Every structure is written in structure tokens, then in C-alpha cells.
Predict the 3D structure of the following.
Amino acid sequence: MKRLAVIDWNGWRAWRSGAIGTALAFVLAGAVFYVDTFTDIHSAIAVFYVMVLLLSAEALTERGIQLLTAFCTLLAIFSYGLSHGLDPDLPAALRLVVSIAALLTTCALIIRNDRARLALLHFNAALQRSEMRYRTIFEQSRVALWERDYSAVRSHLISLKESGVTDLKQYAKQDPELIARCIELISTVAANAAALELLGDVGTPNVGSMRRYIAPDDESFLDLLVVIFNGENHFEGRGTIIAADGKTKQVLVTIGFPDDISTFDRVIVGMIDITERELTQKALLEAQSELALALRVATVGALSASLAHELNQPLGAVVVNAQTLLRWLRRDPPDLEAVGRSAERIIRDSQRASDIIQNTRSVISQETRTLEEISLISLVHETRALLEHDLTKHGIALELQAEMMIKPVRAVKIELQQVLINLVTNAIQSLAGTPGTIARITVSIIDDADVVSLHIHDSGPGIAPDVMDRLFRPFQTTKATGLGMGLSICRASMEAIGGKLTAANHPQGGAIFIMTLPKVAR
Ligand code: ADP
């Protein structure tokens, strides 16, 4: 009820003034009609009907004004009819025409004016709604927003430009006061709640200068000045600010400058607090570098383990051959031919140890290693010769099954040989650990369309089920003194040359390892 009363009160006032105007208009219309009809004044009295229209203009609608114009025109004609009857009176008729023209013109003007007023009202209402929308967005945004007046700083920078400054950054070095001066020239018009939350009291309208919250080491402010100096429209940068409580914060600042320089007094500045993000990123980087360090340590560990594993076999062979050599030498008389053979084997195995170290070095330093064409048949023969001592010791036969025409493969020979030695050594160890079986290792070379593969099949007990899943992972071993590095190194070496290494238990017993290599296109 109370609300209704308030609304009615305003409406009633408008209605009252309109009603008074209309009442006065009708009285005036009556007066004009009377004077025009019943007095002898020979002038265009009917023109005064215009006053009637003007007085009612505010109270009547467009239609009402049209009807009133028609009514006044009829009154004027009726008055002419009453005063002159059918006698032609040219001056009076002309006065009537002038009066009617004045009425019609006034009617048209009132309607046009009314339409323009309505359009203006609509426009104003839309403007108000838009302003309200903008205010709501500004106030309620979770992004810290300021309205700032950049007009003075812009004028200052433009005057510098006009005085011949071309490189503002260079100029700032010669004039260290430039930044402080420019900060003072920027004033804050408004700030939203998020801005207050970000900075505290600092930076709100009329609360001190912006200088209080720009950190002394902040470099983004000069970049911002350069953007204004160059007449660019957009600035985005990272800044360092100091909040009212003295806390330093990292912020992302974004400012859009208008094309219309007259609106530089209301520029919107947005800031997003990225302190947490920066801290997280810093922690992440630290964690990453710690991880990299740990990885390096682990790599060194793994490499030492790998080297120890790879060198074990040739160095073991060197020791065995050196002992044999001594035995031949201590004979009476010494068997110098046998001594020579042992010495040659020692040289061969030492050379292999040296090649392994050299290859490991080039893997670490990522040098390009020399690929060569290798005959797999020769590779198997050489491997058998190298492992001859172990094979004989355990009474193991190594058989080669291959067609005569096997195309060579392209690889680093020492790597490929190490893979084969590892696989055959594993097979030997597996057979040596299970006495009473027919000890046999079969190496078959199978030439397929695009690949060539080496199958190393032994007659041992096969791969233990508990290691099968993680066979190729480092440090997986079932041997008391094993390192568990061999198979992981072998797989990595095979993959490095575009090949594969797989393992399975053979349906006829024993383990089978398959080395698959890409063929050389000829
Ligand atoms: P290591 O020989 O030091 O144990 P490897 O990586 O060469 O390391 O081998 C990992 C494991 O795979 C061995 O401990 C063994 O259990 C299994 N393995 C490898 N080759 C054979 C094989 N021919 N027969 C049965 N098990 C095997």
C-alpha cells in the first residue's frame, strides 16, 4: 500500500499539471472562439488556437494532439462561417488559412518534438541500463578492476614524443625520475571489491598515490608507459605490487586503452594475483631440478651396474686365459704355441672390454656411433668362439641353424654382439644350474620379408613365472650373484637400432629369446 502511494503521488503530480494545462487550454479555446466569432477585431485571432495546442502538448498523446488540432481547425472554420456566412471576404479567408496553417505546423512540431523526447527517454533508459550492467560487472567481478585516469600521463608522454624522444626505455635511463613522475600523473577513479581485497586500502580513489603499491623493482610499469607512448591499444604484463599490509604479490596486469583519446580518463585496469601460481611453479621447478639430479645419480648408478655387468664376461675370460697362459708357460718345456694362443685370446677379450667402455661412452655423450653391415652367421660363430671356455666347461653344445643366404643387418657390432653374448650366457647359466638335462643351445637365424630374427632357444628349465612379467626391468634377477641388468640393456640396445627383443617359454621346454632386426634394403 505504502509503495503504491509513493508511485501514485508522483503520477498524480504529473496528471495534475497535465489536467490543469488541458483545462486552461479549453478555457483559452473558448475565449479564442468567442473573440474570433463575436467581436469585430479584424486580425488572425484563430492563430491563438496554437496556444491551446501548446498548453495541452504535455498532457495529450500524439492522437490527442491530432484530434485537438482537428477540433481547433473546425472551431476556426465554424467561427468564420458564423461571422461571415456565405459572403466572400478575402482578407478574413486569408487570415483563416494562415491560422489553420499555423495550427497544422504547430501540431506537426509538437508531434515531432514528442517523438524526439520519447526517443531520448528510451536512449537514456538504455544508457542507464548499460551503465548499471557495467557497474554490476565492475563491482562483482572476481578480477581486481580499477578505473584510472591516464589522460595526464598520456599527454606527458606525447609531449616527450613531440620534443623528439623516440626510445622511451632509453630516455628513462637518462631521466630516472620519469617513472615516479608518471606514477603521480595517474589517478584512480574507482576500484572494485576484488581490487580492495588484493591491495587493501591502497589504490582506491583519493587514497594516496599509486606509488605506494608499485614495488621498486617492478619493471612492468615502464613497459606500460612504452605501450601508451607507442599508441598501442593493449598492455599485458607481470608486475610486482606491495599490498597495504606490506605483502609483496606477483600480478598479471592487463589494460585495454581506448581508440578515442578523450576517454583516457576512464581506463579499466585488471589485475590477477598469480603469487600462488608463481610459488607453485617455483616449487615445481625446484622439484624438477632435484628430480633431474636424482635421475643423474640413478643413471650413473645404472651405468656402473651396466658396465660392471658387461665387463664381467670379457674380464672373466681374460683372467681364465691368463691362468691358462701361466699353466702353459710353467710347463717344462713351456708350450710356447699354446702360450701364444692364450695371449691372443687375452688381447681379443681386452679389446672387447675396451670396445664396451668406448661404446658406453658414446652412448652417454650421444655421439653418432658407426653402424656397419654385419653378417649374423659370422656374429654367431664369433660369439661361440668367445664363449667357448664356458660352453666346454659345462658341456653345452651350441648349434647354429641358418640358411646360407642371410642378408647382412646394419648395427653397431659391439652392441649386437653384447646382446647375443648376454642371451647365450644366460642360457649357459640356466643350463649349468640344472644338471642332468641334455645341455643344448640352438641359435636359429630366420629371414623374413622385412626383418631378420635370431632365436636363442635353450634346453634349460625355462623362465621362472615370477620374473616373467618384469623380465626386462633393471635389477630383476633370480640369481644369487646376479645384477639383473643384462636383459634390460639388451632390450634397450635392440630398440635403439629399431629392433625388438622378446622372451617366452618354448612349448617344447626351455626359454626362447627372439632378437628381431630390421633388414638392410639393397
Ligand atoms: P642376471 O643374469 O644378472 O640375473 P638378466 O637381466 O640377464 O640378469 O636376467 C634376468 C633374469 O631372467 C634372470 O635372473 C633369470 O631369472 C631370467 N632368465 C634370463 N635368461 C634366462 C634363460 N635362458 N632361462 C631362464 N631364465 C632366464
The radius of gyration is 52 Å.
